[in-house]
Amino acid sequence: MTSAALRSRGTPLGRLWDIAVRYGLSASGAFGISGAHFLAALILLRALPPADFGLFAFALIIVPFCLGISGALLGASLSTAVAHAHAIAEAELTTHLKASLVLSALIMAAVTVLMWGGDSLLNAALFGLYGGLMTLRWFARSYAYAMNRRYRVTISDFVYGGLLLAGLVVLLGANRLTIVNGAAVFAVAAGVAFLIFGVSYLRKLAASIMYGSLRAYHSIWRDLTRWSLLGVVLTEMTANAHAYLVTFISGPKAFALLAIGSLFMRPVSLCLTALPDLERPTMARQIAAGEISRARRVVVEFRGAASIVWAATVALAVALLLWFPDLVLKRGYDQMEALAVLGLWALIMAVRTFRTPESVFLQSAREFRALAGASVWSSLASLALTLALLLVVGPIASLAGVLIGDLVMAARISSLSRAWRWQRG
User: 93 — phi, psi (to 5°)?
Assistant: First the structure.
C-alpha cells in the first residue's frame, strides 16, 4: 500500500494516519516532558532525604495547578476566540499577553509563599521563579497551538526536558544535588524553554507591557474565564486535596510516600494536562461549525490515547516496584505501602482518563459555568473525606477521599455532556 493511499483522508487507515501524526508530533513533546519529570523524580527520590523529596513533590503539585489556572484564564479564551473568529484581533492578543505577564508574576509570588512555609526563603524563591517561568511558557504553548505552530511547542518541550535531566545528572555526578541546586535547574530549564518561542513572540510580549489593556480583559472575565477558573480551583480541591492537607498537617516527609504513587503516574497526569491545549482548539472549531460528530470523534481519540498511556504507565510502575524496588526505593520507604499507594493512584488516574476528554469537550462548547457547578459537590466530597480519613486512618487512606471525589465529578460531567448533546439533537 502506498503512502499516498495510507494518508487518504476518506479511509479508516487515513483517519488512523491523521490521528498518529497529530498525537505523534504534538504529544511527543508532552510525553518527553513526562519522561523527563519521571526520571528527574527518580533521581531526586534516590538523592534527597524524604522531607526534601516531599517538598519537591509538593512543588510538582502546585506548579501544574498554576498551569491549569493559566489555561483557564488565558488559554481557553484565546483558543475559543480564534475558533469562532478564525483569527484574533491584535488588541485582544495584546490583552492576553499582558495578562499572562501579570499572572506569571502573581504565581511566582504565590508559589514562593506556599513553599516558604516548609523551607528556606532561597529554596522557596527558586521554586517561585520556576512556577512563574513555567506559567509564561504555558501560555506561549497555548498561543502556538491556537496559531497552529505545533512544531514550536514540541521543540520547547524537548529543550525543557533535556536541560532538566542534563542539569540533574551533572549535579548528581558531582555529588552536589541538593534541594537548592535542583530547584535552580528546574527554573533554568523552564526559562530557556520559554525563549524557544522566538524573538517575534518575545517582542509581542514586551510590547504588551506598554500597549496592552487589562481593562479590556474584564469582558472576557465576566463572560467566560471566571467560570473556567472556578472549575479549575474546584477540580484542584477534588484532585489534590491530599497534597495540601498531608503536607501542612503531617509534614512533607509524610507526603513523600504518597508522592511516590503520584510520581509513577506522572506520565498520565502530564498527558491529561498537555493534550487539552492540543485538542481544545480543534473541538472548538468543529463545534462552532456545527460538526458535533467530528468533535465527539476527537473525544474518543483523546480518551484512547490517554488510556494507552495509562496502561503502559501502570504496567511499568508495577514491574519496577515488584521486581526492581531497589532502583526506586531507598531506606525509609516500605514496598507494600508503596504498592498500596500505587494501586489507589492507578484508580484515580483511570477515572481522570475517562472524564478529562469529556471536560475538554464541554470547555470547547463554552460550558464553563456548568463545569464549575459540576465541580462543587466533588470538591466538597473530596475535601471532607480526605481530611476525615487523614485524621482517623492516616495519609495513605486519605487518597480514597480523592478517588471518591473524582468519581463524583466524572459522573456529573458525563451527565452534562449527554444533556448538552441531547439539546442539540
Answer: -65, -45
Mean predicted confidence (pLDDT) in 159-164: 95
Those residues whose C-beta lies under 8 Å from the C-beta of residue 329, and which sit 6 or more positions away, are 45, 260, 321, 335, 338
> What is the amino acid identity at position 386?
T
Task: Give me the pLDDT at residue 11, please.
Answer: 59
Say how far apart CA 413 and CA 410 lie, in whole Å.
Answer: 5
What's residue 161's pLDDT?
Answer: 92
Q: What is the pLDDT of residue 3?
A: 47
Per-residue pLDDT, 350: 96
Q: Is the pLDDT of residue 86 over 60?
A: no
CA distance 355 to 84: 25
Compute the average pLDDT of residues 145-165: 89
**Strand, coil or helix: what is 395?**
coil
Find all residues with CB under 8 Å of 336, minimum gap 6, and list them: none
Q: Which three cell numbers stand for residue 290?
A: 456545527
What ranges in 324-397 are assigned the alpha helix state H? 325-328, 335-364, 368-392
On whether the CB atoms of residues 401 and 384 are closer than 8 A, the answer is yes
- Distance (Å, rounded) from C-alpha 287 to C-alpha 297? 12
Query: Cα–Cα distance between 48 and 177 in angstroms, integer?
Result: 8
What is the mean pLDDT of the segment spanning 54-82? Answer: 83
DSSP-based three-state secondary structure for 2? coil
Q: By C-alpha distance, which of 39, 22, 68 is closest to 305?
A: 22
For the chain, domain boundaries: 7-423
Rg (CA), the chain: 21
What confidence tier does 84 reach under pLDDT thresholds 50, 70, 90?
low
Say if residue 319 is exposed, middle or buried (CB neighbours under 10 Å; 0-12, 13-18, 19+): exposed
Amino acid at 375: S
Under 8 Å between Cβ of 55 and 184: no
For residue 148, which phi and psi values (nearest 5 degrees)?
60, 40
Whole-model pTM above 0.85? no
CB neighbours of residue 332 within 10 Å: 11
List phi, psi (to 5°) of 99.
Answer: -65, -35
Q: Whole-angstrom Cα distance, residue 174 to residue 167?
A: 11
The gap from C-alpha 227 to its chain's centroid, in whole angstroms, comes to 19
- C-alpha cell recorded at residue 356: 478529562
